[in-house]
Design a protein that fits this description.
7-stranded mixed beta sheet, about 25% strand, about 160 residues, binds adenosine-5'-triphosphate, binds magnesium ion, alpha/beta
Amino acid sequence: MCSARVEFLLPADPAATERCGQWLGEHLRPGDVVALVGELGAGKTTLVRGLARGLRVNDAEAICSPTYLLVVEHPGPVPLLHADAYLPDKLRGFLDDGGLEYLLDRRSVSVVEWGNLVQNYLPASTLWVEIGLAADGGRAVALRAGAATDFSWIAGGPKMSFRD
Ligand SMILES: Nc1ncnc2c1ncn2[C@@H]1O[C@H](COP(=O)(O)OP(=O)(O)OP(=O)(O)O)[C@@H](O)[C@H]1O
Ligand SMILES: [Mg+2]
């Protein structure tokens, strides 16, 4: 099965990253798992804030890095489970102790910052979102789905504008 990959650039404005996240959140469905990859300060949490808005969770503006809490639950029509693997041993310990079942709740959308550090725990159907710094201060985003049939809507990403 071939995978789908989509790449695009975001301008040097955090609001563009939020809008990209919002577009993702508007398309995601209960049971979807999203893994975010990117260095410190890449914009992962900024993207999740927009994603939470797209999902219409009750407290999207309260989104922050869940590094020490490991997984933060945001209630809403489709709840968001926001996890952080920056401290991979801590998150792995939690996942091994039953947390994986909690994280992969079929009624929620689950997003894992630093998902590459817990890759073995995540389903093959995970949507991978890689954020890198672009030369102009913006961000280069690559979306990758395990199978072309998963998240087929990502192909529409580059056609929409994340500018004002
Ligand atoms: N497209 C963008 N252009 C310029 N700055 C951006 C863009 N997107 C996000 N930022 C800024 O980058 C900084 C880091 O963002 P954020 O905290 O979301 O990164 P992170 O990847 O979650 O970092 P960490 O790994 O430390 O948790 C913030 O100041 C944010 O406003
Ligand atoms: Mg973060």
